[in-house]
Amino acid sequence: MGPRDAGTSPGAPPLLEARSIRKRYGPVLANDGVDLTLCRGEVHALLGENGAGKSTLSKILYGFIRPDAGELLWNGERVELGSPRDARRLGIGMVFQSFMLIPALSVLENIALFLGDLPAIVRGEAVGRRIRALGDRFGLHVDPSAPVRQLSVGDQQKVEILKLLLAEARVLVFDEPTKVLAPHEVRALVRVFGALKAEGYAILFITHKLREALACADRITVLRQGRVAGRPRPDQADAATLVKLMFGDREPGPSVAAEAAPSRPPGAGPIFELRGAWSRASGSETPLRGLDLTIRAGEIVGVAGVSGSGQKELGDLILGLRPLSAGTRWFDGEDASSWSIARLRERGVAFVPEDPLAMAAVPGMSVRENLVLGTGRRYWKGATVDWPRLESAMTASFGALAFPVPPLDRPAFALSGGNLQRMVIARELAHAPRLVVALYPTRGLDVRSAVSVRELLQRARDTGTGVLLISEDLDELAELSDRLLVLYGGAVTGEFARGGWTAEEVGHLMTGSKGAALA
Amino acid sequence: MPEPALAAAVRRSPALRASARYLAVVLAALAVFAAVLLLAGKDPLRAYADTFRDTLADAYGFSELLVRMTPLLLAAVAVALPARLGLINVGGEGQLYMGAWLASAGALLFPRWPAWLLLPLVAMLGFAGGALWAAIPGVLRGLRLVNETIATLLLNYVAPLVVSYSIFGPWRSAESSAYPQSPAFADAARLPSFLDTRIHAGLLVSLAALLFYWLLLEKTRWGVQMRAIGGNPEAAQRLGIPVAVWIVVALAMGGGMAGLAGMGEVMGIHGRLRQGLSPGYGFTGFLIAWLAGGRAMGILLMAFLFAMITSAGDTLQITQGVPYAVVNILLAVILFIVLARRRGWAR
């Protein structure tokens, strides 16, 4: 049992209080006697690695699931939350990781939809006025008539917040809100937190990122394995304290502190090149505009950019998923412009995806069958697959990576997210690839899994593999990249050597606001 | 509480569990249909007894059941195979007609060829007719131009017109001016039949096709690729599986199966090409494949059941004086019950 959670304002009861919350999923105690209070005018940060029980707790606060034991108090009175409707009626709102917006509708229509008592004829003007008024008050400026699909991720998040404010929520739960934001957008969000705080809103800020928690939280609660591991005071704690609380004795290793590894000596020839690469785009895609890119053996090339700057298109182009409309693609000194996906893979191009279940595995097929996919003709034997040979090769690959071998007969969907990621990585790295394309490889992973993926990429680099790392996490890029490219609007707007850049500089290049920064 | 041995065995074995499920579905459907017959003032027990007597317990009735089952099996595989890649082939009926048409062309063009040469030729042409017909929607889908469901469905309306054109025009038999049909095929083109019944060699073709379907999907490396496309097209593409090629190949193979069914009907039953050579086998095949969830054993059982139900229509018409169409009620009830708790497709 963790220490009691004492609110900051001694007089009034906290707006929302959770007492001794307990929730069990099968053998796992997701929440084991968790206390949490949310008071008026404060930001309360909730930290913890994946599986620590953060999302279970937030779901309980929002009425998605009922706790097995424990109680919730609203303004000091006991309440039962049977559904998110109950929570909303009380004044509890939640900003989810994936936004609940309808892209084709305007900001105003999205917000009006959310307000429960939707009249037959929506009085747009009145709602629009309120949106503008709230926007001015809290620094949430969005055009009410703009269709949501045209908004940046940061603006969509503002719409989500406005929705809750118009619905008169008093407690706002933010589930990893900074994950999708560029650095200056994060700072804007922190300012919004400040404005909300000043007007007496209570904010629960769920995050992985220690620095952000330390920067803006009034109080911090750290969860570990379903229990409160500690409540360090932000003015007295530092990142090391928080890591210790999050992981207990199992600290994730030194690389969290992000010390720069020595740069590889150049000299190794290019493995992969794009020369003046253009791509066509349809719908919401970003076309690549005359992109030049070189990846040498034994280096990690990082690509920074806000989402939608052409990262997906760049990854697809390298992996052969989309054709070049102009320019050339070179692999190992050969013109690979017209090579198929299969040929590129056969020659040693591997990829570590953002979402392994969606992008690199077939959920309904067994682990064994998933392991043979994408290995080209390596394990063909007549009309069938040489299963024993495949198994021994893959077992060796799992072993080399120090991964446990998952049960081969289980369907892939039965694996946990981490094991699935390991399965895909073991398969992709099984045949000594020449080039690894990593697309947001640590997105959604907890700190420890993310560290192990980063170490794998470094190890691949150290054995002479070229690595392209597309990421939105500047800390990760700083730690890993031997060279860093900034992508904006489908073109490279900056290139830096290791250590030769600041987050501020790159942040402005990422958002095309370089001029504004200088002004 | 000690469990009865049977119940325990059923729980342990997936195959037994599946069979038990099929049995439960059939029994439930028969119960509902009995209520319908009661409402119509008929005696359901009597009707079921008659049906049983005329199909399962009667040599001739049973042989006719197998005759009906022959095209149904192939038409079901025609749907099930592309469905494993996530493709919906509603065009079995049209593919069946085109298989019959091209096989007929072979039989009419080379009437003097000996049977050992002509039979494989018409079989291949039957397959090719359906395969080429289904390859049209396959290519359109592979190029991401037209959805295969729409294309296969619409081609169903075209194929019978091709047959009609041929038998009203160039292939029209001189024997009878009242009835448009092709001349009778040479004996060498006729599929051999067994034991003085209408059961013909097409039944063996059907069973072989079902076995081929199972082996291909479950045992070969091509099957792994095809199932990967059905299970996650994006991952399949990213992993270098030639998705567009497989889409064309799978639809063509499915169409070929339906084409073989058409070939079997004209070469095994009718002995000439005529209109209305299929009472909707292609569509019934779709139901069978869907109810069986693409599982080979399920297709076998369901094809048998559907053959029995359609045979029952004849019996009921004669003995109970109800219209043949009442069996459609029974088919609908079965569909309804199965869809009510769908188990999804085999992976």
Q: Class by helix and strand content of chain B?
A: mainly alpha
Strand-residue fraction of chain B?
under 5%
User: Might you state the CATH topology name of the largest domain in chain A?
Assistant: Rossmann fold
Major sheet summary line of chain A: 6 strands, mixed
* Total of domains of chain A: 3
Helix content of chain B: over 70%
Q: Can you tell me the residue ranges of chain A where pLDDT is under 50 for at least 5 consecutive residues?
A: 251-266, 515-519
CATH arch. level architecture of chain B = Orthogonal Bundle
Alpha-carbon distance between the two ends of chain B: 35 Å
Can you tell me the number of structural domains of chain B? 1
As a percent range, the share of strand residues of chain A is: 15-25%
Low-confidence stretches of chain B: none
Rg value of chain A? 25 Å
CATH class of the largest domain in chain A, named: Alpha Beta
Q: What's the CATH first level of chain B?
A: Mainly Alpha
Report on the structure:
The complex is a heterodimer of chains A (519) and B (347). Chain A is α/β, with parallel strands linked by helices and 519 residues long. Chain A folds into three domains: 41-62 and 92-251, P-loop containing nucleotide triphosphate hydrolases (Rossmann fold, 3-Layer(aba) Sandwich); 252-348 and 434-519, 3-Layer(aba) Sandwich (Rossmann fold); 360-432, no CATH class. Chain A has 18 helices and 22 strands. Chain A has helices at 54-61, 84-90, 107-114, 124-138, 153-166, 183-198, 210-216, 239-247, 311-319, 341-347, 356-359, 367-372, 387-400, 417-428, 447-462, 474-480, 503-510, 514-518; strands at residues 16-25, 28-38, 42-47, 69-74, 77-79, 92-95, 171-175, 202-207, 219-224, 227-230, 270-278, 291-296, 300-304, 326-331, 334-335, 349-352, 380-381, 384-385, 435-439, 466-470, 483-488, 491-497. In chain A, the strands form five sheets. In chain A, strands 6-7-8-3-9-10 form a six-stranded mixed β-sheet, with helices on both faces. Chain A has a six-stranded mixed β-sheet with strand order 16-19-20-13-21-22, sandwiched between helices. In chain A, strand 21 and strand 22 (491-497) form a beta hairpin. Chain A starts with 15 loop residues before the first strand and ends with a helix. The model of chain A is unreliable at 251-266 and 515-519 (pLDDT under 50). The radius of gyration of chain B is 21 Å and the shape is globular. Chain B has 14 helices and no strands. The two termini of chain B are 35 Å apart. In chain B, helix 5 packs across helix 11 (243-270) and helix 8 crosses helix 9. The mean pLDDT of chain B is 87. The longest helix of chain B is centred in the middle third of the chain and has 28 residues, at 115-142. Chain B has one domain (19-340): ABC transporter involved in vitamin B12 uptake, BtuC. Chain B has 347 residues and is mainly α. The chains are: A alpha/beta (519), B mainly alpha (347). At the A-B interface, helix 10 and strand 18 of A face helix 9 and helix 10 of B.
